[in-house]
Protein: protein acetyllysine N-acetyltransferase
Amino acid sequence: MKEKVLIFSGSGVSAESGLRTFRDMGGLWNEYAVEEVASPEGWTKNPELVLSFYNERRRAVLSAKPNEAHSAIARLEDFFDVVVVTQNIDDLHERAGSSIVIHLHGEILRARSSLDPNLTYQLDAPTLEIGDICEKGSQLRPDVVWFGEEVRFMREAEKHFANAEKIITVGTSLTVHPAAGLLKKAKFSSEKYIVSVDAMHPPYGHRFLRGSATTVVPHIVNCWIEGRKP
Ligand code: APR
Structure:
């Protein structure tokens, strides 16, 4: 029986693939007002602005490549029973080869009916425009979770945190709930690391390893594969 490993990722794991984070220097929320581009109210007020915000990010995702952190995480699957729980809406974990990726905040490469949330579609075009409609005739929106909307798969994510023996939390400021609260669901006995370029106080028994995702994550992964502690 392979040991259970859980990877919990935020935008920092995709930063070295050239995708912008939110709260760092140059982050998206330094340039855009969250309520205007990532909330139901913003969508109602100015859907064109919201669509162009996500079109720009989708183009960036489509031209980005998975980095060494994504690849190391995918490599873990040869040795461990791995689940990735991500706050990210890009598909870099999947493109690196991770087979179980739970997107708490949705997926930018999917669209959804603005009337019926159960109607979702894989996007085959890089942009979503006004007039792109679902099969019931309503405007399509990005299939992402906006502020004020319900985060997805939380119960499933909590279960994975609770039964993981090893956990890496990488590239998240842990400022957005309920996602950030998942860390306290981890077993006391599990081996837990938190990786970030910015110093942070490691919560709930996690060991903080400061550095970039592409340096520190492969280091942890190689140690685990060799049966060593990082
Ligand atoms: N390697 C490791 N960590 C990094 C790197 C890197 N190359 N670059 C940035 N980081 C770290 C930053 O230090 C920061 O702690 O990644 C974190 C990014 O934090 P945020 O920008 O807040 O992104 P995230 O935590 O993913 O945001 C959570 O907020 O706006 C919502 O829905 C959005 O999913 C997002 C959620």
